[in-house]
From TrEMBL, chains A, B:
This is 3-methylmercaptopropionyl-CoA dehydrogenase. Its EC number is 1.3.99.41. GO terms for molecular function: flavin adenine dinucleotide binding; oxidoreductase activity, acting on the CH-CH group of donors. Involved in the assimilation of dimethylsulphoniopropionate (DMSP), an important compound in the fixation of carbon in marine phytoplankton, by mediating the conversion of 3-(methylthio)propanoyl-CoA (MMPA-CoA) to 3-(methylthio)acryloyl-CoA (MTA-CoA). Residues 81-159 form the Acyl-CoA dehydrogenase/oxidase N-terminal domain. SUPFAM superfamilies: Acyl-CoA dehydrogenase C-terminal domain-like, Acyl-CoA dehydrogenase NM domain-like. It catalyses: 3-(methylsulfanyl)propanoyl-CoA + oxidized [electron-transfer flavoprotein] + H(+) = 3-(methylsulfanyl)acryloyl-CoA + reduced [electron-transfer flavoprotein]. Its cofactor is FAD. Pfam families: Acyl-CoA_dh_1, Acyl-CoA_dh_C, Acyl-CoA_dh_M, Acyl-CoA_dh_N. Keywords: FAD, Flavoprotein, Oxidoreductase. Residues 474-594 form the Acetyl-CoA dehydrogenase-like C-terminal domain. Gene3D superfamilies: Acyl-CoA dehydrogenase/oxidase, N-terminal domain, Butyryl-CoA Dehydrogenase, subunit A, domain 2, Butyryl-CoA Dehydrogenase, subunit A, domain 3. It comes from the Bacteria.
Length: 599, 599
């Protein structure tokens, strides 16, 4: 019953009209020849695959879930395996990967847009190749040439999939206390022993081999995070040519019964002297882990963009179709027994909240995709560094702000459907359940907030934040002359200066009491999120106004819709910043004064 | 793995120290002899039943759900039937019901407190007797003496259960367009034909008979809500002595697969010329429906108080037990590998948000319970009217504000557990799924907001709101002399005057454009919610200060905890009002300007 249509026009608006990607990519030698038509046709084809192959499996996957068959065997829901086969054959998994290992070498920003559609269609399924991508990133950055030759080519082709084995039952946020051991063997390999939990895609029947990247401790490792190393631990041990040999000595012990993403196997992995190979330097595993993790955090943000988009589409369709009650200003659909519920202001609030959040989140995450391309491929080192800083600063905002909003959006989408929203067959409640994990995994949203305020902002005395501020001002400069733009520019500028002022205040308080950072971090992250979204709506409005002034060639309705949504954002969502500023300024005392025993 | 301990001390604080119930009840002739000890021992015993009998069935019910066996037969999860037997035998269902029909005649406020514990223990199970209570209320108010004799006694004893059959697939919020027909029979009964959906407890195996109260249209009924009548339609048709006879001609056609409350059967009911009897006057069914509905709305608020309480208890236990990372101000549990996560400011924010919301919601809903007792049983008509007005005004706030907060609280409780929160066995994710329905059923929260602002506030030009304002000022008067109380009284007073000012503004705008009501209603309801919670925390702080000044007889920690939680509320939750005021004032234009086709 639910439907999904890839939002190609909206994606093109961001890619071509807001970000001007083909112009930006022209400055990166390896992407200089990608034009707008190529991008559009890749996304159109990719969208078909998502809508026609992945989306029909979304409710099936939720209903059936994965099954633990005993003795380490896990089967995925009906159709998952076949869809993966199609995905690999069509080369979709290799889209953004390195041509040296068989990848198609497309820019990250295009990969981001494709990921949005995959996640709209089926988040649980998309996590299988998603985890491979994390493993690919770590091996690409830290693997030896031999490791890359064997493992990367198979991860790129999709013949094998990957995982990230970090968490243990007593060690989640705090990886420093993990216990899995790695004992050196005579042949240069290691014997890995320990139990990992919450391993997404840890065991399944979709690929010939599964490559686990496992954090463990060497015998002489220092305590804490400085004593963690990263190991490749393949399910079947390949020879130097990638031909599979013996089954390694570890198994999936069970899978979790969880709130959502039922189609993805969340595994307990028992490593029992399993053979593994060190990736990168001994005791430097956390560096490699952060390469996976940062990419995963951006990926999680994209999961919520995707879920919020599909939920919006279905709640909008319902709101136009469902007749119930009359408009407060008199009947609108006089020929019917009642008006469609989209006439009601509060139904519109629920729809526009989704629309405003999804479209800004799309702009924000594609922008980050392009920044990653620049960070890695721009010939000018200064530009690379500039973009690396912006990506570092905003990664926790993408993860934290977009996933919190994604949960709110899917919750609102359900609410538009009333009682039907609570019923499984309509599909909305699944989106809420799936969206809920995004606020937790790859670092809870509290951790994102601490990373943002403590490390990324105060860690360099606000230098990265100032860079972002300058980028904002530079981008809006072309619009500042237009008096009609003041309704958007004024609140953006006011928020930007408020955030800067508040950052200094918190920085000063934090020097006396580090708990002030923990107390302010969550509202601070949301404030920065609103700063980014104000920016996104400001330039969206600016571009829309310009196009309308130029005549908009038959597309007036589209641009007017952008203008109206921008107005809605500033009228109804931006005001949250008033509360957030008070909350961030309220400090730590009211949080800390109650003694633990008196809770 | 999850646990539940009835929060007796906190309940007593509200009943005896904030509300002074036994003094209040002394003025109601039929409750004049209930003292504090009686109340406490009823709740202690009731709490045992909830914790020992109902709570162990909560996860079972979620896992197994109800089963549709074909041919109209529905079975409930393992243990549900037996628990219901115990419930009936112990007389718990008859607690607040009329002694004329076998009830125990206890005050509503005690019933409310008992309902909180039942809902903490098992919302899905509690809905079975909960629906009976709605049917009881309607029959008690509108049934003939004969109907009462046959049906009420069985509903009170619990031998039979009841339902409310309102919704049809095309008619939910808008009952005026419902189609179920009632054709008069020669013997004075009616033949009911039509299909009802979303009928909670519509069919099950827990009681001997099920009494459906069905909304339907008489042949000559006027269109819309003025042509709806209410009928009793029993599953088995009783004779005048209540002896069961023929099976009536209707069946459960299927049950819904839904996000939560799996243990409660949500039924499609097909009435096929079923025999029914008119309740109340022809075409006046909506009056009777509102009697059920208002009681149900208060009951839904209590469901969320219960869920938020049990979620809080379990997230608190986890936060004290789970060690992970170190406090930002240096190690606290030096003997351990890490500190318990309750040392982190943001974990405390998540716990204190729950605590502040749950405790204020408890105070608010018990207060409403006592007001209902006064409304129905006070000898002075003026007092009855006064309380009726307050209950009418605040019912949508209880339903809307407490259930929205309940969802937020259970979502935060899950978040405290990180990845474990997403796993079913920990129990937290079930609370979120169960809490989600409370924002939808018995009138979505948008409808509550419209009812509040349109009907209850603007409908009498703010008269009921002024009454509430006077009640607030009278109650806080004993505390206003204390300078230490200003930190709580000042924000309460400021919010109260802001709400009054804003009400006039919206009223004036609404005269020109009725959509202004729909546009402001949801933030307005939350503002009024915060006004009530500010009031609750203000008097809680006042009482706590007084007790501490008196020496507090060994209970200092308890009262200090109230003071700290009040401070937290005003520092971190109250600031939401700054955003809400901007949102409510932003009006309808940004909601209405986008044309439907351009969404």
């Amino acid at each position: 019953m639910p439907t999904y249509t890839p939002p190609l026009r909206d994606m093109q608006f961001v890619l071509h009209e807001l970000l001007n990607v083909s112009e930006g990519l022209r400055k990166l030698p390896q992407h200089a020849d990608i034009d707008r038509d190529t991008i559009d046709s890749i996304l159109e084809e990719g969208g078909k695959f998502c809508a026609e192959v992945l989306f029909p499996l979304n409710q099936v996957g939720d209903r059936e879930g994965c099954t633990y068959k005993g003795d380490g065997v896990v089967t995925t829901p009906t159709g998952f395996k076949e869809a993966y086969q199609q995905f690999v054959e069509a080369g979709w998994g290799a889209l953004g990967m390195d041509p040296d290992f068989g990848g198609q070498g497309l820019p990250h920003v295009i990969h981001s847009a494709f990921m949005e559609m995959m996640n709209s269609a089926n988040q649980a399924w998309t996590m299988y190749p998603g985890l491979s991508h994390g493993a690919y990133n770590a091996l690409h950055a830290f693997g030896t040439p031999e490791q890359k030759k064997v493992y990367l080519t198979k991860l790129v082709s999709g013949e094998w999939t990957g995982t990230m084995c970090l968490t243990e039952s007593h060690a989640g946020t705090d990886l420093g206390i993990l216990k899995t051991k790695a004992e050196p063997n005579a042949d240069g390999s290691y014997s890995i022993t320990g139990t990992k939990i919450f391993i997404s895609a840890g065991e399944h029947d979709m690929s010939k081999n599964i490559v686990h990247l496992v954090l463990a401790r060497l015998p002489d490792a220092p305590a804490g995070t400085k004593g963690i190393s990263l190991f490749i631990v393949p399910k079947f041990i390949p020879d130097a040519e990638g031909v599979l040999g013996a089954r390694n000595t570890f198994k999936c012990g069970s899978i979790e019964h969880k709130m959502g993403i039922h189609g993805n196997a969340t595994c307990v992995m028992n490593f029992d002297g399993a053979q593994g190979w060190l990736v990168g330097a001994p005791n430097k595993g956390l560096n490699a882990m952060f390469v996976m993790m940062n990419s995963a955090r951006l990926g999680v943000g994209m999961q919520s963009v995707g879920l919020a988009e599909v939920a919006y589409q279905n709640s909008l369709a319902y709101a136009k179709d469902r007749i119930q009650g009359r408009s407060l200003t008199g009947p609108k659909a006089k020929e019917k027994a009642a008006d469609p519920i989209i006439v009601h202001p509060d139904v519109r609030r629920m729809l526009l909240t989704q629309k405003a959040y999804v479209e800004a989140a799309r702009a924000f995450s594609y922008w980050a995709g392009l920044a990653i391309d620049r960070e890695h491929k721009h010939p000018d080192e200064k530009v690379r560094k500039e973009n690396a800083d912006l990506v570092a600063l905003l990664t926790p905002v993408i993860k934290g702000f977009i996933t919190d909003n994604g949960y709110e959006c899917t919750t609102l989408a359900m609410q538009v459907l009333g009682g039907h929203g609570y019923i499984a067959e309509w599909g909305l409640e699944q989106h809420v359940r799936d969206a809920r994990i995004n606020m937790i995994y790859e670092g809870t949203n509290s951790i994102q907030a601490l990373d943002l305020l403590g490390r990324k902002v105060l860690g360099d005395m606000g230098a990265k934040l100032m860079k972002f501020g300058r980028a904002v001002q530079e981008t809006i400069k072309p619009f500042t002359e237009n008096p009609a733009m003041q309704e958007f520019i004024a609140p953006l500028n006011s928020l930007q200066s408020e955030v800067q002022k508040m950052t200094m205040e918190i920085g000063q308080k934090a020097m006396k009491n580090p708990d002030e950072v923990g107390a302010a971090a969550v509202p601070y992250l949301r404030l920065l999120g609103h700063l980014v979204f104000s920016f996104a709506w400001c330039i969206s409005a600016g571009v829309a106004m310009r196009r309308l002034a130029e005549g908009a060639s038959g597309d007036e309705a589209f641009y007017k819709s952008k203008l109206s949504t921008a107005r809605f954002y500033f009228a109804k969502l931006y005001p949250e910043t008033a509360a957030l500023m008070q909350q961030a300024r309220a400090g730590s005392s009211s949080l800390m004064e109650l003694e633990e025993v008196n809770f």
